[in-house]
Amino acid sequence: MTENYFENPFVKLHFYKFGSGTQHMLCFHGLGMHGRQFKLIANQLGHQYTFWSFDLFFHKETQLKDQSLATIKKGLQKKELAAMISAFCKQEGIESFSVIGYSMGSHYATTIVEELPAMVKEYIVAAPSSINPGLLVRFFGKTKAGNMILEKLMLSEKAMINIINFCTRIRLIDPKSRDILHQEVVTYELRFALYACFTYLRLLETNEAQLIKSLTTHKIKSIFIFGKYDKMYLPTIGKAFFAKYKLGKVLILDESHEMINQNFVNQLVASLL
């Protein structure tokens, strides 16, 4: 495994490279994780793929050139993300690739399929919040009132923990997800990053018609992976989408939200080979 940076006018993007295969896969991790999250997959598929796994915005070593509130509130446009990925691929000599995204990372993967479908060979999303992010995410990220509340809450660790615990009690999130979120609010810097993720990425909302058009027109192989016990993104969130798009493979694992493990890898490998 090696690591490096890609820079453009608005971001210094940290990424990991693992595997040595002739095919390429771009990897987008979940909230609070990092680019090494997908290293386990390379242990079995590294002969087939070269993996390029990014620390996403407001995570680990990746830094916006301007991380002011004004920039964060402006948000990331889909075409900006697509232009960044295109420039990255040009730098690394990548002409085509697959994408894999987990939870928050599924929004990145989906945007790339919408904007750069001619370059994409396979589309894999796990715990795909991009299909239906849920009422809370939309409220805090997309509405002015919700975003103002979230901005105030990031000043208070106690308030954030109380909200997370409340969401657990009413079963909007499961205990494992609660524990992950608790770790994301213990310092002001982490709370700021959480706020920034909700706010900066709010424009990466799936355009279902465009996604389906991209997948079908360009014959992109698609795999949707759910955890049977994932309280955040149960398989039922895809009911409306899969009524419109019937060509994707759907895997339901005996897992909770925290599903990137050996069982996940085994099921994914079986679906790709």
From TrEMBL:
Question: Which parts of the chain are coiled coil?
Answer: none
Entry keywords, A to Z: Hydrolase
What GO MF annotations does this protein's record show? hydrolase activity
Boundaries of each AB hydrolase-1 domain copy?
Answer: 24-143
InterPro entries, alphabetized:
AB_hydrolase_1 (IPR000073), AB_hydrolase_fold (IPR029058)
Q: In its UniProt entry, what is this protein called?
A: Alpha/beta hydrolase
Q: Which Gene3D superfamilies match?
A: alpha/beta hydrolase (3.40.50.1820)
